[in-house]
Amino acid sequence: MRAWGSDVDDPVDLELDCREMPCPMPVIELARHLDDVEVGGLLAVVARDPAAAVDVPAWCRMKQQDYVGADTADDGVPRYVVRRLG
Amino acid sequence: MKGAGAGEEYLDSASAVPLHPAARDVLLAALDQGYADPRRLHRAGRTARLLLDNAREATADALGVRPDEVTFTPSGTHAVHLGLLGLVRGSRRGDVVVHSAVEHSAVRHAVAWGARSAVVRCDREGRVDAGDLAEAAATPEVGVVALQVANHEVGTVQPVGELDLPDDVPLFTDACASMGRLPLPDGWAAAAGSAHKWGGPAGVGVLLVRKRARWRNPFPGDDRVDERSTGFENVPAVLAAAAALQAVVAERDEVNARQHALVDVVRRRVAAEVPDVEVVGDPHRRLPHLVTFSCLYVDGEALVTKLDRLGFGIASGSACTASTLTPSHVLEAMGVLTHGNVRLSLGRDTTRTEVDAFCDALPGVVAEIRARVGL
């Protein structure tokens, strides 16, 4: 689902529920599941952890992936979307 | 340097430095001589007053300011609150404080308590653009600009001396992380320092207010020797802080060069020997003694605990090591990884052997923590 005013235009291929996970688990889950989407596909992590807002884009920069942007899941929890580049 | 714990390398001088050797004898002697009320006219009072005045003059001399611009406060935090909010109170322009996104929480709390905030962003290395600050300062209702001399978490030196602010917008500079280590830049109306960060005793802050600054006490006043101070002065601690400051300033060329080179070793070795690590802050224009890096997939608390068990006492800005469970606002503003964070800060006698021992131990510790989560 796509939220209004979101940076995310394309459908997400895989969404990871990390709502209740503390830092740095959301980023660890992201790394674990990167290969579960095709190159060019979108992987999203839903997390309440306030560190994820900084750490997901930082992870993308460090691991040469594309940070697409943030929106919110249906329940209002922040969702961070990544495009797999390799 | 060796910490109090058996076999511990204390690598957290940016949080607190052990008492400088030059301050110890001064403190012990002053405990016996400086107990009386410096306002009293009897012999013991005059002795305390003399010690207090000596401390003020020594501090002024070490910092290159006038003695009547120096006020001793009960902490660096209180000096920040007094200095910043006093300029806000004295402003004819307004109560908006333009400040960088990476100021110490003492500045942020002061602004939240007694002013309105306008935040200026920093770059990836934590530096604020002088032009951005000047532009923000020129908007209506801005009363004060606040910019640290150097960042307490990542060491990046800010362009304090290069700011071109409107004439009626004074600058407050938080010099707590740098005082003694780096000369004070020009251009400020009020500044703050903290003695336990240069090797003086805890419980001594330094507030500097320029002679011509429009500063008004933001808190209830008192009837002390110094109109800006509140409460009975801790004369022995203040004198010891001044002695430590003089000693640190006298030795800083040698100590800074040595520490700067050792931090270069840490920056180089950590980046080369730990996979998926981000060494942050400006590699060159920085505090000499401090380096910060973040390790991907690593729990900051586990890292601090594990390194402590191996005998290395370090700090972390990661959320899981903070009481608030939010990551460091400094790392956040820089847009760098906030988890798995280590801030290592050297003592004046930290050696290459000690730094190498830390760099030797780190890759194994990081690998072990990552192995627990299968990465």
TrEMBL record, chain A:
Recorded family membership: Belongs to the sulfur carrier protein TusA family.
Pfam families cross-referenced by the UniProt entry: TusA (PF01206)
The species this protein was found in: Nocardioides furvisabuli
Family matches, as SUPFAM superfamilies: SirA-like
Protein name stated in the entry: UPF0033 domain-containing protein
Coiled-coil stretches noted in the UniProt entry, renumbered to this chain: none
InterPro entries: TusA-like (IPR001455), TusA-like_sf (IPR036868)
Sequence ranges assigned to domain UPF0033 in this UniProt record: 15-84
TrEMBL record, chain B:
Record carries keyword Transferase: yes
Cofactor(s) the protein requires to work: pyridoxal 5'-phosphate
Keywords: Iron, Iron-sulfur, Metal-binding, Pyridoxal phosphate, Transferase
Catalytic activity of the protein: (sulfur carrier)-H + L-cysteine = (sulfur carrier)-SH + L-alanine
Keyword Membrane: no
Record-linked SUPFAM superfamilies: PLP-dependent transferases
Residues spanning the membrane: none
Domain Aminotransferase class V as annotated: residue spans: 10-358
Family: Belongs to the class-V pyridoxal-phosphate-dependent aminotransferase family. NifS/IscS subfamily.
Protein name: Cysteine desulfurase/sulfurtransferase TusA family protein
Organism per entry: Nocardioides furvisabuli
